[in-house]
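Sanity check

After download, print the first record. It should look like this:
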Amino acid sequence: MKKLFIDSDVLLDLLLDREPFSEDIANLIEKSIETEVKLYSSLLSIANIHYIIGRLENMKKADLKIRKILKIINVENLGQSVIDKALKSKFKDFEDSIQNFCAVEAEHEIIITRNTRDYKESELSIFTPREYLAKIKSE
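Expected C-alpha cells:
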C-alpha cells in the first residue's frame, strides 16, 4: 500500500478552502480513497494547523476541523531522532526539516507540499498535489 505524507500547507488549503489550491488536495484525497492510498501527516502539522485556524477563525472551528481531518489522515509521531536530524540538516526551514525527517523515519517515499523548493535537500520524492495527480494519471 502506498503512503503519502501531506505537509501542513496542503492541509490548510483544504481546511481553509484556499483557492485555487483546495480543489487539488480535495481531488488527491478522493483519488487516495479510490486507490486505497493512505494519507499521513505529522503531529507538528496537526498542532500548527489547529493554532492557525484558531487564530484565523476561532478555537471551536479549529477543534471541529482537526476532528474532520483526522478522519482522512493518519498522524505520525515525532521523536528525538527527528529533531536531531532536523537540527543537523541543510534545510533552510526548521519546520520543513522536521516534516521531512518525520516522513523519512516513518518510511514514506513521497511528500505532498505546495512548497516543493523548500524540500530541495530531501531524499524523498516531492510533489504538489497537482503534480502527484498528473503523475499517477500517466502511470
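If your output differs, re-run the checksum step. Summary of this record's structure: The CA atoms of residues 50 and 62 lie 5 Å apart.
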